[in-house]
Every structure is written in structure tokens, then in C-alpha cells.
Amino acid sequence: MQIDTEQLRQLIQTVANQIITHADELTALDQAIGDGDHGLNMQRGFLAVIAELDKIAVLPLPQALQAIGTTLVMRVGGASGPLYGTLFMAAGKALPPQPTRQETITAFGAAVEAVKARGKSEAGQKTMLDVLVPVHAALTEGRSARSAAAGAATSTVPMKALRGRASFLGDRSIGHMDPGARSSQLIIESVLDVLEGRS
Q1: Which of 14, 149, 169, 176 is the most exposed place for a label (fewest CB within 10 A)?
Q2: Longest C-alpha distance within the chain, in Å?
Q3: Phi, psi of 197 (to 5 degrees)
Q4: Which domains does the chain have, with CATH numbers?
Q5: Confidence class of residue 108 from pLDDT cuts 50, 70 and 90?
Q6: Closest of 198, 179, 186, 163 to residue 26, by C-alpha
Q7: Degrees to nearest 5, angle at CA 54 with 52 and 55
């Protein structure tokens, strides 16, 4: 999987634009079961990434991902900053500069495991992991990651939250999509849009 500077720039720009565009939706989802700041926090983080785009896009892919992760940790509030920062930094740490498809899937798996460890969470607890884990499984098994992401985000609606601010609501968290799952879906779809030539 050869990613040059221009494609890396497009990847970063597309992901950031998708999150920024959907900030109000993410905020509304978080208002239902959380602090109500997920959209604004994610928007702030990716605006900061865009501000550093010229510097980040010229880095080798592993270093670029780590730079994005560091920026998100520093600029995104709440739990999302450390968790998304960990996802990008761990992926960058595990990737070679020009990864094969299998090396990319392996690195993504390592990043998902790092998020589990950072959040002390597992799939099934109504978090971003409920999208990340099924997407990794789909990639490993050769299934559609796009379909897996969409279906997994929707599957968080009937779940009872067991982690994060939403867990304080107990049964009242049932019936709402997890905002972290939705933002994970948006990021994955954006990456696929670029890699599949849809963007």
C-alpha cells in the first residue's frame, strides 16, 4: 500500500473535513447520553490537525499518524482526546513506512488493542470499540469494512452503556447511538473513501 505525500494530505484533509462537518450531529448524540461536547471537542482537535497539515503531510506515514495522535491528545477534551490520540499513535508506531495491506491490518489491530488498554474497555460496552473491533475483524476476514462500520455504529443504539459518562445513565443510555462509535464510523469511512478512490 503505497501512500505518497499527496495521498496522505488527502487522507488527513478528508478525515478532518468529515469530522468537522458532522460536529453538530456528534454533539447532539453526546447531549443525549454524555457531556454534549464530543462534536465540539473532535472538531477542535481536527481543526488543529488541519492547521499543521503542511508539516504533517510531508512526514513518513508512521510519523504522520503519531503527529496526528499527539495533536488530538493535546487539543481534544474529555476522554476522546486520549483515546483517539492513542489510536493514531499506536497505529503509527506499529506501521512500517510503506506497509502492505496485511501490515496495515495488523497495525490497526495493535491500535485497537491500545485503545482497549487505555480506556480499560472492551467491545460490547457502548464505546468507540464497538465500531473499531468489528471493523478490524472485517478487514482480517476480507469482508467490507465500510458495511461493518455502519452496522456496528447502529448496533450501539440498543446497548446499555457500561463505560464512560453514558454509563451513569444506566438503562436510560439504551436507545441512543454512541457518539464515539459514530465518530469512529466517520473516520473509517473517510479513510476508505480516499483509498478506494471515492473522495
Answers
A1: 169
A2: 47
A3: 75, 20
A4: 5-195 (1.25.40.340)
A5: very high
A6: 179
A7: 70
- Using alpha carbons only, what angle is made at residue 79 by residues 73 and 83, rounded to the nearest 5 degrees? 55
Grid coordinates in use for 100?
502492505
Digit-coded pLDDT (tens) for 20-44: 999 999 999 988 877 778 999 999 9
The answer to whether 180 touches 80, Cβ cutoff 8 Å, is yes
- Asked if residues 38 and 78 have their Cβ atoms less than 8 Å apart, the reply is yes
